[in-house]
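User: Please run a holo structure prediction.
Assistant: Happy to. Please share the sequence and the ligand.
User: Here you go; the ligand is iron/sulfur cluster.
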Amino acid sequence: MQTHFTLSQLADHNIDIANKEIKKCVHCGMCTATCPTFVVLADELDSPRGRIHQIQQWLENNSPITKRFVRHIDRCLSCYSCMTTCPSGVEYRRLIDIARQKIGQFYRRPWGEKMLRLFLNHALPNPTLMRITLLMAGFARPFARILPQQLQSALELAPKKIFAPQYFAPAVNNLGRGRVIIHRACAGAVVNGDIDKAVVTVLNKLGYDITILEESQCCGSLNAHTGAGDLSAKKRSALMAKLQNLEFDFITSTASGCGSFMADAHYFGEYAQKYRDISQLFRPDYAQINPEFAPKYMGKRIAYHSACSLQHGLKITDTPKELLQSLGLNIITPKESHLCCGSAGVYNILQPALAKQLGQRKSDNIQQLQPDMVIMGNVGCMGQIARFNQTPIYHIAQILQEALT
Ligand code: SF4
Ligand code: SF4
């Protein structure tokens, strides 16, 4: 696409980045078919191509940030399905991040929305505050129906079980498998601490030398999602300062949402290359596989849900499925597996109506397969899909833990 930025505009680093990405777009529209918001709303302004055009117009004309512009940017899930589809290699995430950050800095949201975002940005990535919030959610539940839709959605998502802080000692196995840092998703540690335990157990059993970060060592992903760019940068810097003092070959996270962010070299520089999903690290010896594992699941239909962060962010599509199949599981894939479930960080709180439509659609597609269980790699998706689906849901690490003796 032709752009008309002036030289002085291009001196701004963000505009320079945006210019390069916008130029790559040939307006073919292939991305629209795989964009969840376009699929649901059928509005060009809620498609990747439409959003790129709006961002270009706004940046080139140095226009004020309008309510209409914010509405269409806010509706984007940052699922990056469009990047998987795009034949021109447009790094859409650079553009949406710039737009979100500027909105976060300069747009005056209504008071209630501002407070909600402030709360989400500070409470969710802080395990202590998150535990207090979940405790309070218990008292608020009886009044859910009189609360605004966004708070109703938050209450629906709030789990009744709260996990206490867990400490995991580092392990040195000295088997030459590699040194792995385990990053713990901060909200994940509170809503499902079993996942942290499973990831630690699996990597330990596989013989890696492991170091486990504290549950409060946030990567800043959630803040970036909501446009709180400065807060995200602060957390990123703190995490990278920590990594600088550690020796390691790989870094993994208990949630692929955080993983996708940490594997983005734009934010994490050289550390991004060291990111591995647990499915990529799972290389057991034959003798380590529990002989009772495969017979236990024989005849079971197991749906695999691919989190957007994994398939579109990290570009890991077949590895987890092939791994589970190699362990003897009958893996089935729901239709429209490329579409987001509506979790997307805190999207299901900030955009409750759209998230509900997407969650129901995802759940219906899973349910059509009549599975006995569902496996996925992101704690956010687990909570979102569980709202609409009674089928038992597991994190892949929990299954891998079971597969090992
Ligand atoms: S990131 Fe997802 S929701 Fe946003 S434009 Fe791309 S495909 Fe659509
Ligand atoms: S698929 Fe890529 S090139 Fe085509 S309109 Fe979408 S972003 Fe632009």
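The chain has four domains: 7-106, 111-157, 179-281, 288-403.
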